[in-house]
Every structure is written in structure tokens, then in C-alpha cells.
Structure to design on (278 residues):
């Protein structure tokens, strides 16, 4: 498979499964877009490897496959898989370390277990290790010299927490719950109770606590100066306020009664890109 074919496959994957980052990447310079698509397709693959199975052992085997794939791509010996081929070219064309990509894989191990995170701090650290790290790597592709650690940490945690809230119904169907165990216990809830009509009040309190945390990180991100050329990497975080309003508006939303429309999301991203700020 040629690098061009691999990048095209990555773009198709991101467009289908990660439309927020896909549309944001379109604001990047033409030559950088394939690299962003490769990174985001890789993120999709490792997230799917961790979440798609109820058997922890199978999940770990899949993540180990990706650890080995990273090593071989770094050595210029990609496996016959589109993302693996694209990673080889990504290493050659961008200043990304093998260790950073491996850290993304390691962070996904926490999603294999059905057990909730211990507390809100642990959930925030997971969002930092996944969403924020991915945002920082995307920014490094766009501008390796930009100082973005604080910006990507706050924006990435906010976007990650919003994503976890939006995925509550999906995780519940797979027998998983990533919401903090201490918040659940404080409201007399078991993980399986989050979607139960009998526990709406307690579920609302749990959601509210996470919404407040996400909003706080988003507010902090807005106070940090954004280097011009990294904007496409940060753009997905502009959707955080809309997503938070969506999950708090009605308990019905947590049971999967729809999502923010794609058109509305694109308009929010477009506005943020035009004004150059979250």
C-alpha cells in the first residue's frame, strides 16, 4: 500500500468516526492535513481496541498489537494496515516521538476495565492522558515550536470530559461506566443506575459535577493565548459549551435521544476558526 492510499484511508476513517476533528483539520495547511488524519485515525483505532471488547485480556492484546505497530512504523517497517503505513510517513515528516504515541496507547488501558474511575481527579487525568495529549501532538504537527502545553491541557481535558459525558449511553450498553466511583457512591448510585429513570436526581448530580469541571477547564483554556498556527488542533474544544448544554438539558439525552447536529457543530467550528479563538 502506498503512503497516498494509506493517508486516503485514514482521512476516510476520521471523516466517518471523528467528524469534529475531521472538520477542524480542514482548516490546517494542505500539506499538514494528511498527517493530522493519520494521527486521528490512529487515535480512533486504539480507542476502538480498548472499548470494543468486554474481555480485558482481548483488549490488552489489541493494544499490544498497536504498541508493536508503532515500533515497526518508527523503524520504517510498517505492517500491512493503512494506519500503520501512514504512521511510518508521519514519523518521517513530523517531530513526534515514539514514546508519546505509546503513551496514548497505554492511557487507553484504563478503558478496558468496566470499573469506574476512582474520583473526578482520576477522570481528569485520564482526559489529560488521552484527549489533551492527542491535542498536543496535533499542535506539534502544525507548529513544533509553539508553546501549547497549558492550552492543550485545559482545552483537551474539557473536550475529553465532554466526550465521556456524551458517551455514557454507549458505554452503558457495553457494560461500562467511566464516571467517578466516589460521585456515584455519594449519590447512592451503582454504575448501572445512570440510565435508570428511578435514579434521575442522583444521575443529574453526578453529571452536574463533571459538567462544572469541564466548564472550568474550558474557561481556563479561553484565557490562554493561542498561537496562530495551532488553531486547527485546538478547534474541537470550541464545541465543549454546546456539548455540555446538550447533556444537561434533559435526562433523556443521557439515554441516547440524539446528539448535536453535524451542521450545528460545523457552524460552531467555523465561527471559532474565523475569529481565531475558542
Amino acid at each position: 500500500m502506498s503512503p497516498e492510499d494509506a493517508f486516503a484511508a485514514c482521512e476516510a476513517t476520521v471523516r466517518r468516526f471523528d467528524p469534529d476533528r475531521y472538520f477542524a483539520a480542514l482548516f490546517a495547511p494542505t500539506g499538514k492535513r494528511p498527517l493530522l488524519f493519520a494521527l486521528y485515525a490512529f487515535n480512533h483505532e486504539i480507542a476502538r481496541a480498548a472499548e470494543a471488547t468486554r474481555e480485558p485480556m482481548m483488549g490488552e492484546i489489541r493494544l499490544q498489537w498497536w504498541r508493536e505497530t508503532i515500533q515497526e512504523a518508527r523503524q520504517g517497517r510498517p505492517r500491512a494496515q493503512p494506519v500503520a503505513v501512514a504512521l511510518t510517513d508521519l514519523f518521517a515528516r513530523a517531530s513526534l516521538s515514539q514514546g508519546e504515541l505509546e503513551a496514548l496507547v497505554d492511557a487507553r488501558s484504563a478503558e478496558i476495565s468496566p470499573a469506574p474511575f476512582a474520583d473526578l481527579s482520576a477522570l481528569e487525568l485520564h482526559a489529560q492522558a488521552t484527549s489533551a495529549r492527542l491535542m498536543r501532538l496535533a499542535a506539534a504537527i502544525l507548529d513544533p515550536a509553539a508553546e501549547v502545553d497549558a492550552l492543550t491541557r485545559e482545552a483537551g481535558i474539557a473536550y475529553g470530559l465532554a466526550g465521556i459525558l456524551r458517551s455514557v449511553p454507549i458505554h452503558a450498553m457495553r457494560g461500562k461506566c467511566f464516571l467517578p466511583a466516589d460521585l456515584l457512591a455519594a449519590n447512592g448510585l451503582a454504575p448501572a443506575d445512570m440510565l435508570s429513570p428511578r435514579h434521575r436526581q442522583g444521575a443529574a448530580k453526578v453529571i452536574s459535577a463533571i459538567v462544572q469541571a469541564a466548564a472550568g477547564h474550558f474557561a481556563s483554556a479561553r484565557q490562554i493565548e493561542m498561537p496562530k498556527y495551532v488553531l486547527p488542533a485546538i478547534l474541537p474544544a470550541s464545541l465543549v459549551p454546546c456539548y455540555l448544554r446538550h447533556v444537561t438539558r434533559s435526562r433523556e439525552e443521557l439515554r441516547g435521544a440524539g446528539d448535536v447536529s453535524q451542521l450545528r457543530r460545523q457552524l460552531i467550528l467555523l465561527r471559532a476558526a474565523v475569529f481565531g479563538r475558542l
Remarks:
- The chain has a mean pLDDT of 91.
- The chain has two domains: 1-113, 114-278.
- The chain has 15 helices and no strands.
